[in-house]
Automatic annotation (TrEMBL):
Keywords: Electron transport, Heme, Iron, Metal-binding, Signal, Thylakoid, Transport. The keyword Thylakoid applies. It comes from Prorocentrum cordatum. The keyword Iron applies. This is Cytochrome c-553. It is found in: Plastid, Chloroplast thylakoid lumen. Belongs to the cytochrome c family. PetJ subfamily. It comes from the Eukaryota. Residues 82-164 form the Cytochrome c domain. Its main location: plastid.
Amino acid sequence: MFRSACLLAAGSLVLYGASGFVSPAQPTAVSSAARSLSASALAAAEEAAPASSGSAAWSPLAIGAALGLMVAVMGGRPALAADLENGESVFLGNCAACHAGGNNSVVAEKTLRKAAIEQYLTGGYNAAAIKTQVTNGKGSMPAFGDKLGPDDIDDVAAYVLDQSTKW
């Protein structure tokens, strides 16, 4: 529901912004400086200026810019440091089989609790060490570097770090 409202608002802003790129269909009123010119000087200036078609209400550049902006807004994910919701879903889909509830069903003492991470994880208690472990694996843990993307690995590392004090 919230995403739909955001998309509707973004689409409206794109169309409103694109209207600023539309060339006017009618020439604008003559300025006061132009009125002071003599009739012959004004006629000479009009002959020298290229004639504009004025028939196209939408320029291709404005349509392309509006569509590009709309695709970027609708298709892009916000750039967040870490997405804990995504980290949780990645964890549940890939890690929970062995690490449900922060435990370790293979090697019981190597849990995902803060004290165990500080003791057993190469690199200590930080997100970079967790990312390395998830990416490369070690011992009984398989490597997930080929299975998960870098953003998913960042998110699951942030989730594990966040949950390690709660499990």
